[in-house]
Specification:
61% helix; Heat Shock Protein 90; 9% strand; single chain
Length: 412
Amino acid sequence: MSAGDHQAGVAPWQRWLLPGEMGRPEDRRRSARDWVVDVLALVVGWLIGAALLADTWDQHGQAQAIADVVLGVVAGVLLWWRRPHPTAVAIAIGAMSAVSAVAAGPALVALFNAAIRSSRRGLVTVLGVGLVAAVVYSILYPDTQDPLAVSIVIGVLITGVIIGWGLFIRARRELVRSLRERAARLEAEQRLRVEQAREAERRRIAREMHDVLAHRVSLLSVHAGALEFRPDAPPEEIAQAAGVIRETARAALEELRAIVGVLREGDEAGIEPPQPTLADVPALVGESRAAGMRIDLERVGALDAVPDPVGRAAYRIVQEGLTNARKHAPGAAVRVRVAVREGEELDVAVVNRAPVAVPFPATAEPGGPPLPGAGSGLIGLRERVELAGGRLEHGPDAAGDFVLRATLPLEP
């Protein structure tokens, strides 16, 4: 199915059965159905006109009969333009039908077409012309069997039936158009929702990869920098540092494999990404202490009652705070405090007790290259905290220490 057919909501084979104006919006040419309808409308109109001419033949002179036929032919030809100009064609043919029996047949077709396509004001004008033409025709060609009033009433009723039929077809077409527009709008909204869901999932995976891998890689950089800075260290310390590097690299690969598993479409056996909780914060702090960081951990309140989603957010906050401390203030003392306040909020704070400002580039070891940082970690944390309904603050305090603090509600 082409893009145009898809936009119109109509299959290609169905377009053969619909008017051209209801097919592709950009293509208003006559369809096969339009050609068939045009030929039938012309034939039926002329047949009705011929029957009326035969019925009133005795009331025609020779010149009047020739004029009647000429007007009927012109009226039939004008039907070709009834779609783009419904009101003008209906008025012109209606005026001809007042004096021409042959034109009366095409006038019915034009009247029906005007009921389908004309504007409200145009339709009122066409209706007025049709009623006047019916009265004039009844006066010029009176029925020998019925009184003039009966002939006029019959003409008016025929005009009303044709208008009503056309309005019914118009209402059905407008209903079809509205349903198609609604279907197209719903489809567009569905595509937008899918794209938004995909984008949200990409952001979630990117945030997860940053939270997990930045922590592991920064640990690797610290230990590797220590080996580089002290190549004359005792073999026991070198072996211990190499073991920590190997274990950290293995953990990073496992976590990366778990996250990448989410990206595999159709992989039903994909591993869920790591989902740490508040209970894993001591282990996280222990890893950083093993890397040489001086960390003071304080845990206050009923932390076991903290819901897992809130605890997961708190874990990521502590993880990002420790990662930033290793990047920007190596060797500085760090204080981590996790506390439940009044049973309603969880307060998480990571404080770097160093006079060095966070944006200032630092290295894992003196003389080493600076650790990269794009600043996306704090952006991701802010988004995570806002989704949890909490508040995030970061920056130097009055004492010059850099503080990363988040307040998370225990209930959504």
